[in-house]
């Protein structure tokens, strides 16, 4: 295990805390003994020393401290070059020791800080760090240090030295200022600022005049940073003199640098110094300062704002606050919004920090703030208003506009809706601004006591206008706090004479909308009840707390909360509610009016209000239509006859009359409006029947109610049909309740049943309408909600019972599925509960008689599974229940009985309990487990559909569910994958073109997930079926990919066990070799890939590795039997009984190289492999070469010739073997000669001669004359001569003779006499092949072994003939040059003579 330097440092530090002196000595000794230790290790040791010194300095001996100081100083300055990590680590040690032993440190440092000599970079850096870490210890030294440093500033030429001097001056100045600010703690309280003034000004002069103009931005910033604290130490007259130049220079730096913080900090310090000394120069600079600072304020982030605010405070507290305020207010009127935003930030700071100065300017500021109120970026405006509220601005004239501004922004609508995201992450959304204003209004109410009388009763007036409806919740909360305070203290202005409290009651129609305004509205009503009505206080104090507890989920369940609200409403006898524009609110108000009319005894008022309700209602709105019907039904409980009479009159009114003829073009209401009005009327009769007194209703059923609605039984309008169904249901409920107490014969029962059956014919169309209505409606009364929901479920059950099949289930589910991903939690909950109900009904009533495929299982699971992580816990649990039922439905279709329990499906019950945990990590882990269960039970045919449905779920409106889709998708692909889908699909494809496309898909999949694809295909059962083979063949189409796959397969083949020994049987004790399945599958895979012709390039490039691996594989298959389970595969597979018959991969490799001769295996296993570098890599060269040497004397001429070819290939595959020691080469050369002498007929066989010469002679004999072994040189040259008798007329041999001609000519002067004789023999015998009769005659006459030769004259004569071969002259020239480096002087001399001729 490798140990990191950090671990070493921690270990040494632990020991150092126990034994600091010993550990420090060891570290010091190690550094001294290893002066060349790498920098990284030195740094770790130095850092460790620093940490030990910091933590245990009191326990370290003084002698050890002295030695550590010496060590650190030496380490810091050993290298003249700057090595930051090393030298900084040493400097840090000196700083750590200097916190206690400052005198010793200064003695060491000042010894290296001598006048007239430019010090080391880190000496200055250490002084700067010491002044920061030990102010009281360093300041007494600074006067002397500054005196020594000043001459050095002029010597600094490099930017890094200028930088470190500037940084040191900055630290020195800040230390002096801190020392002077805390003289009571200082060791020398007599120190004064003027002690350092002259040195500081001299340094400032150099920094400002020279270094501040540098092109290096880092240096400029450091100089600017130093100028700030230095300005406090300069003499007042010097600073006053420099300010006109200094301030513009600093301001100009804003344009030259991006790091504005340093510049602003320095400018702030300069301004502070100038204000402290009462400078008048600032007045001349005020305009440029304000302009620049205003630009920076509107561009800067929050860290810089503190600096800008400090500068503004300095300017405001000086003698020109009026100019500053006027400047800011003028900028508020600028047409550029960004300029106004910057000015608002300045104004906010001025209001907060300069209270006394701003007191006389409040009205002016209030007047100027109106322009920014219309800006889009209102965050700054809200902040300014908040500051103004705390300083008494809102009580003044015009303050009400600022309160209105806050309330307007409390009512902002949402910026983004379902599936929308902000494009700009820094954008201030409506939600963020609205929340900010909510908090501001709350702060006004709770922390700014002076605003109580301003906000009460002003906020009440914002409750009634419709444009402030979204602000109802924060308004009611603030008013509740204010009202409670005033009511408790019995303040006179608590009592208000007003009638417009309707908005509060209106909010209870939909208490969870408009940001949950229900509970705050009720709380406010409870507080102001004494102001509403004399009868309200007692009743409301009883009813409202129960409703509040219900809304907050703390109290008991209420059967009908709307009834409680109606009681609250009825106590006021309030009647004017017809102007509200919101359907759901108006629906609730209609119910309230119905309850109010129950208490009213004035018949005329009842008639008037009923007429108003029917006329003013928006009949096109289904919610409002239902509200009108409910309200009129409630009224009928006390005024049945009057209500029926009014409904009859309304049904006969002109509003229901359709225009005819030419006047139809002028009609006010179209036919659609009339049908909607009729729907309202039909519903009204139903609710009248439901709420009418029991002793009166039966006599009215036939005579009034059914008579009025029966005329609409034959309508074709879907809305009217739905209203008829609802109305008949309500009538049936009313009758069933009454007949329990008194006898009644319902004579029109059969007629109504017939109407309902006819309506069921259109039930599939109505289903969508019913589901949409029930899911969308916010039905507040619990009893009514349950009844409506039960009716919906009953309707869906009846529809499903008519077609209890997968198609019937789908026809019902399609009306529900869109609600599963709704943005509203209650809609998703209702949709999921409804789905669970119909699935349970389907399962309990399912009778499988024939084998039917549950074909929509995948699509249903794809819709339901992502909901397992829904934000609503009830939806999560219901989703698990649905999946549980679906999987058991699938098991029923697979033939299992109704009471069968599957272990994997039963695990869903355990998972359901974990769904109560809201932790996302737990939910996603549960999703993964759910996917595994689904993967196990899902049929293969359904996988494709499920995957595509989950892909659609990736864009679900709920981010939790979209993440769940991705988890489910990943788990499914991991467990089942796409390859299985393609494998199944291949079995069904008959078109060849489609198969080609599928093959391309497999190839693409492999390029992206190669390892997974290979593992999956290898796992398919053996022998591979034809479709699996096609998939492997497809992978051979890309040579690069095929190469990778083959390498992977060979790598595994080389390490896997090819077979295992198993007992033959219990009766027999012998062992049988049984093949292992994975190597067998890989071998077959290689064969299938090689069937693809496009894999040839990959096979050729990997031939040596493939051949050796498969040769070993073939050898390890001898006598090995197949596994017993290999024949249990599908019908479309072969069933071999012998392993060798199951695959012949080596044969496939041979055929890829088109070698048709009978000795191809010998060629590959011998001479051909010697031509490849892989032989050397596998360390097979020596073994193969020895075998080739043995085969040279083989009785078979073919074997001998191939052996020689193999040895010739050594020069290519392993040239270093050509230089081997001993007589191997002699044997090779002699072997070549033996072949030529003993088997001349083989030399002439087709292709044999060229190969022998080029491979054998070319690679061995040609290079032999330069061998130091005389015997080798002689033998190779004699071989050349012996072979010449077979080379007559052969162009290959002729070229070869020309290639060695120069070598033979030069070795005529060889120091060995036998070599000279061999050259003469070879040249004389080979002369006819050269192609020149003159040269042949010359060789025949002069080159005799027993005669002497005058070499100079011979070469001189020969060159005259050689020029007749112009094409070879350049080659001869190059060859001769190579012999200039010969080992023998005679040969080098001959070469010089030859080239000179």
Automatic annotation (TrEMBL):
Domain (Maestro/Maestro-like HEAT-repeats): residue spans on this chain: 1266-1396
Domain MROH2B-like HEAT-repeats: 234-554, 586-760
Protein name: Maestro heat-like repeat family member 1
Maestro-like HEAT-repeats domain sequence ranges: 826-1046
Keyword Repeat set for record: yes
Keywords attached to this entry: Repeat
Residue span(s) of domain MROH2B-like N-terminal HEAT-repeats: 13-231
Keyword Hydrolase: no
GO cellular component: cytoplasm
């Amino acid at each position: 295990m490798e140990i990191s330097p950090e671990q070493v440092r921690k270990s040494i530090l632990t020991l150092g805390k126990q034994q600091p002196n010993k550990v420090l000595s060891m570290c010091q000794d190690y550094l001294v003994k290893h002066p060349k230790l790498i920098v990284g290790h030195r740094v770790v040791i130095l850092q460790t020393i620093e940490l030990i010194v910091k933590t245990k300095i009191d326990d370290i001996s003084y002698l050890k401290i002295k030695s550590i100081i010496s060590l650190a100083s030496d380490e810091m300055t050993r290298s003249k070059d700057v090595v930051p990590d090393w030298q900084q680590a040493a400097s840090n040690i000196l700083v750590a020791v200097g916190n206690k032993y400052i005198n010793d440190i200064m003695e060491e440092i000042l010894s290296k800080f001598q006048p007239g000599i430019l010090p080391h970079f880190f000496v200055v850096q250490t002084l700067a760090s010491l002044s920061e870490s030990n102010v009281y210890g360093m300041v007494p030294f600074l006067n002397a240090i500054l005196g020594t440093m000043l001459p050095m500033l002029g010597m600094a030429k490099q930017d890094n030295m200028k930088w470190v001097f500037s940084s040191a001056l900055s630290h020195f100045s800040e230390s002096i200022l801190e020392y002077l600010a805390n003289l009571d703690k200082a060791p020398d309280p007599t120190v004064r600022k003027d002690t350092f003034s002259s040195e500081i000004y001299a340094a400032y002069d150099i920094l400002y005049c020279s270094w501040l103009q540098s092109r290096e931005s880092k240096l400029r910033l450091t100089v600017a940073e130093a100028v700030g604290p230095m300005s406090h130490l300069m003499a007042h007259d010097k600073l006053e003199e420099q300010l006109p130049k200094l301030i513009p220079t600093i301001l100009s730096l804003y344009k030259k640098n991006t790091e504005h913080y340093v510049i602003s900090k320095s400018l702030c310090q300069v301004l502070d110094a100038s204000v402290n000394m009462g400078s008048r120069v600032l007045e001349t600079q005020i305009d440029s300062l304000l302009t620049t600072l205003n630009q920076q304020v509107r561009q800067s982030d929050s860290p810089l704002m503190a600096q800008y605010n400090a500068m503004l405070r300095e300017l405001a507290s000086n003698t020109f606050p009026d100019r500053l305020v006027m400047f800011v207010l003028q900028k508020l009127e600028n047409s550029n919004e960004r300029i106004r935003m910057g000015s608002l930030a300045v104004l906010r700071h001025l209001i907060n920090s300069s209270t006394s100065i701003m007191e006389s300017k409040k009205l002016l500021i209030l007047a100027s703030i109106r322009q920014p109120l219309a800006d889009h970026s209102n965050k700054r405006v809200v902040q300014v208003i908040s500051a103004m509220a705390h300083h008494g601005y809102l009580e003044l004239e015009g303050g009400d506009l600022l309160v209105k501004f806050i309330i307007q922004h409390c009512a902002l609508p949402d910026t983004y809706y379902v599936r929308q995201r902000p494009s700009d992450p820094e954008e201030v959304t409506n939600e963020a601004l609205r929340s900010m204003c909510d908090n501001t209004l709350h702060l006004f109410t709770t922390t700014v006591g002076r605003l109580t009388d301003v906000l009460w009763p002003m906020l009440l007036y914002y409750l009634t206008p419709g444009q402030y409806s979204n602000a109802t919740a924060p308004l009611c909360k603030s008013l509740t706090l204010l009202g409670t305070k005033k009511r408790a203290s019995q303040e006179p202005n608590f009592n208000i004479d007003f009638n417009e409290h309707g908005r509060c009651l209106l909010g209870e129609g939909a208490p969870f909308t408009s940001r949950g305004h229900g509970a705050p509205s009720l709380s406010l009503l409870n507080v102001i009840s004494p102001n509403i009505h004399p009868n309200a206080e007692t009743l409301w104090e009883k009813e409202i707390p129960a409703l509040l507890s219900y809304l907050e989920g703390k109290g008991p369940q209420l059967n009908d909360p709307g009834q409680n609200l109606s009681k609250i409403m009825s106590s006021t006898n309030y009647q004017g509610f017809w102007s509200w524009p919101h359907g759901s609110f108006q629906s609730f108000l209609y119910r309230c009016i119905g309850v109010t009319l129950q208490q009213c005894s004035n018949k005329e008022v009842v008639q008037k209000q009923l007429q108003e309700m029917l006329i003013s209602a928006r009949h096109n709105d289904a919610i409002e239509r239902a509200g009108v019907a409910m309200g009129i039904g409630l009224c009928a409980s006390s005024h049945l006859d009057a209500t029926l009479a009014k409904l009859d009159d309304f049904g006969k009114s002109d509003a229901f009359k359709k225009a005819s003829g030419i006047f139809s073009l002028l009609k006010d209401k179209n036919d659609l409006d009339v049908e909607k009005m009729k729907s309202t009327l039909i519903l009204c009769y139903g609710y009248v029947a439901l709420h009418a007194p029991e002793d009166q209703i039966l006599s009215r059923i036939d005579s009034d109610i059914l008579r009025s609605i029966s005329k609409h039984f034959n309508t074709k309008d879907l809305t009217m049909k739905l209203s008829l169904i609802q109305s008949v249901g309500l009538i049936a409920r009313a009758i069933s309740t009454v007949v329990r107490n008194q006898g009644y014969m319902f004579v029109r029962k059969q007629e109504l049943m017939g109407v309902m059956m006819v309506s069921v014919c259109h039930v599939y169309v109505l289903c969508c309408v019913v589901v949409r209505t029930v899911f969308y409606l916010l039905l507040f009364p619990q009893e009514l909600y349950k009844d409506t929901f039960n009716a919906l479920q009953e309707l869906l059950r009846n529809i499903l019972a008519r077609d209890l099949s997968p198609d019937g289930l789908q026809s019902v589910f399609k009306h529900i599925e869109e609600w599963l991903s709704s943005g509203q939690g209650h809609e998703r909950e209702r949709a999921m509960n409804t789905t669970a109900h119909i699935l349970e009904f389907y399962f309990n009533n399912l009778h499988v008689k024939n084998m039917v495929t549950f074909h929509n299982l995948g699509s249903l699971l794809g819709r339901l599974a992502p909901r397992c992580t829904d934000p609503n816990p009830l939806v999560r649990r219901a989703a698990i229940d649905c999946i549980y039922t679906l999987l058991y439905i699938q098991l029923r279709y697979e033939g299992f009985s109704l009471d069968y329990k599957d272990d994997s499906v039963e695990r869903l019950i355990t998972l359901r309990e974990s769904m109560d945990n809201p932790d996302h990590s737990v939910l996603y882990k549960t999703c993964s487990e759910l996917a595994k269960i689904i993967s196990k039970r899902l049929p293969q045919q359904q996988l494709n559909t499920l995957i595509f449905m989950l892909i659609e779920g990736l864009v679900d409106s709920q981010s939790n569910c979209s993440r769940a889709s991705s988890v489910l998708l990943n788990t499914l692909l991991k467990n089942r994958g796409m390859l299985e889908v393609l494998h199944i699909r291949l079995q069904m494809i008959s078109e060849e073109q489609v198969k080609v496309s599928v093959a391309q898909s497999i190839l693409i999949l492999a390029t992206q997930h190669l390892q997974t694809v290979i593992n999956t295909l290898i796992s398919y059962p053996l022998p591979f079926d034809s479709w699996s083979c096609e998939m492997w063949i497809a992978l051979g189409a890309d040579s690069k990919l095929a190469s990778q796959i083959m390498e992977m397969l060979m790598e595994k083949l080389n390490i896997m066990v090819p077979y295992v020994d198993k007992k033959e049987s219990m009766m027999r004790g012998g062992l049988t070799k049984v093949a292992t399945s994975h190597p067998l599958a890989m071998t077959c895979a290689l064969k299938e890939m090689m069937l693809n012709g496009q894999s040839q390039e990959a096979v050729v490039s990997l031939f040596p590795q493939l051949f050796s691996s498969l040769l070993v594989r073939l050898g390890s298959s001898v006598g090995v039997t197949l596994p017993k389970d290999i024949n249990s595969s599908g019908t479309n597979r072969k069933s071999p009984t012998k392993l060798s018959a199951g695959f012949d991969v080596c044969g496939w490799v041979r055929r890829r190289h088109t070698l048709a001769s009978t000795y191809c295996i010998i060629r590959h296993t011998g001479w051909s492999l010697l031509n490849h570098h892989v032989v050397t890599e596998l360390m097979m060269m020596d073994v193969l070469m020895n075998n080739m040497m043995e085969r040279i004397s083989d009785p078979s001429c073919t074997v001998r010739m191939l052996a020689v070819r193999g040895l010739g290939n050594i020069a290519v595959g392993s040239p270093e073997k050509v230089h081997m020691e001993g007589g191997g080469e002699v044997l090779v050369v002699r072997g070549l000669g033996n072949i030529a002498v003993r088997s001349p007929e083989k030399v002439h066989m087709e292709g044999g001669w060229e190969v022998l010469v080029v491979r054998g002679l070319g690679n061995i004999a040609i290079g032999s004359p330069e061998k130091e072994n005389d015997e080798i040189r002689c033998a190779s040259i004699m071989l050349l001569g012996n072979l010449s008798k077979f080379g007559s007329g052969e162009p290959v041999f002729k070229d070869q003779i020309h290639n060695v001609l120069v070598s033979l000519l030069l070795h005529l002067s060889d120091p060995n006499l036998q070599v000279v004789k061999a050259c003469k023999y070879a040249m004389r015998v080979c002369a006819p092949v050269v192609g020149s009769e003159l040269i042949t005659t010359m060789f025949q006459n002069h080159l005799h072994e027993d005669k002497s030769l005058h070499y100079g004259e011979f070469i001189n004569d020969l060159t005259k003939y050689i020029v007749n071969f112009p094409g070879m002259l350049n080659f001869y020239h190059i060859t001769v040059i190579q012999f200039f480096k010969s080992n023998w002087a005679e040969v080098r001399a001959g070469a010089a003579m030859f080239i000179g001729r």
